Amino acid sequence: MKKQTAGIHHISAIVGHPQENIDFYSGVLGLRLVKQTVNFDDPSTYHLYFADGGGNPGTIITFFPWPNARKGRIGDGQVGVTSYVVPTGALDFWEKRLRKYDVEFEKVTRFGETFLQFDDPHGLHLELVAREAGEGNAWAVDDVTREVAIKGFGGATLYSSAPDETAATLTDVLGLEMMGVEGDYTRFKASADIGNIIDLKMVTGNRGTIGAGTVHHIAWRANDKADHLEWQEYAMNHGQHVTEVKDRNYFDAIYFRESGKILFEIATDPPGFAIDESPETMGTKLMLPPQFEQQREDLVQSLIPIQVPPNKMK
Does the pLDDT of residue 314 top 70, yes or no? Predict the structure, then answer.
């Protein structure tokens, strides 16, 4: 039986100073810091998660902030652009807001849609697009109300070292539907209301290099643990070299690098971010997995102090 992912679960990127990261994604874009923890593979570094008010799959962007990280180069083998979706009619608001915070942007049109494209403080390529589908975000930051707030991911633009093979992985492994071709891009769609549109660049360029301002990986959704194990076997049977299941505390994860050199993850929707703190207090303090709790004092001293935005759920 053919499997189909609902769409993007999360996107993880490498950035610079953690406070600059928080100030931009919470203060400018109006996302909620839903979890502050550490990189499980490098616990001296934060792992920060931003999302809608509930921390729902399809809205989650995560960051490894290394203040002294070398600058990366966005290119083939990476997510080139991360797209966010806002309610219809909200782009005028976002043009004004980006100008207010001196964020340079440009308008582009792709597949009949208008996008506002800009970079975050560390060089990550972002864009905003308005669409009808998707629930409103009740997380409020000053004048970013539910009527204009980012609902979650619109999707992503992938830069591949082997576009035809990446296209085959999107359709034959992940179960996305090919929607059309425009210029250098092929569009694919998953079944979810958000995090569902993937534009694949069909021409190659320079190979990307990992570093600050680049996406580390893109994660796709699995329904639960049982579905996740099915995905592991399914991807292996389709020629992917899949890792063992890794417990990331808030989801289980498997990884494979598809033929176009983009690192794909498949992650479970549950248990989510309220597993170790309440929905009301998510993101307000440093949370550690059990294996690091005894090191809390040392880890806190090694981490850069950060100021966390107040709760503003409405």
Answer: no
pLDDT tens sequence across 123-144: 999 999 999 999 999 897 889 9
| Strand pairing report for 60-65 and 42-51 | antiparallel
Q: Is the pLDDT of residue 235 over 70?
A: yes
Residue 176 is given by DSSP the state: P
Question: Quick one: which of 65, 62, 63, 33 has its CA closest to 281?
Answer: 33
Three-state DSSP at 22 gives: helix
Please give the residue range of the domain that contains residue 151: 8-302
In tens, the pLDDT along 87-127 reads 999 999 999 999 999 999 999 999 999 999 999 999 999 99
Is 311 inside a domain boundary?
A: no
Q: Is residue 115 part of a domain?
A: yes
Tokens representing residue 81 in the block: 């652009």
pLDDT at 41: 86
* Omega cis (within 30) before 290: no
CATH label of the domain that carries residue 250:
3.10.180.10
Tell me 230's DSSP state. H
Residue 312 included in any domain: no
Whether 170 is in a domain gets the answer yes
**Distance set, CA 210 to CA 46, 166, 275 (Å):** 18, 19, 31
**Number of domains, the chain:** 1
| Sign of torsion over alpha carbons 279, 285, 290, 291 | positive
Cα-based distances in Å from 89 to 60, 95, 180: 23, 11, 25
The Cα–Cα gap between 35 and 98 comes to 25
pTM above 0.90, yes or no: yes
* Three-state secondary-structure class, residue 169: helix
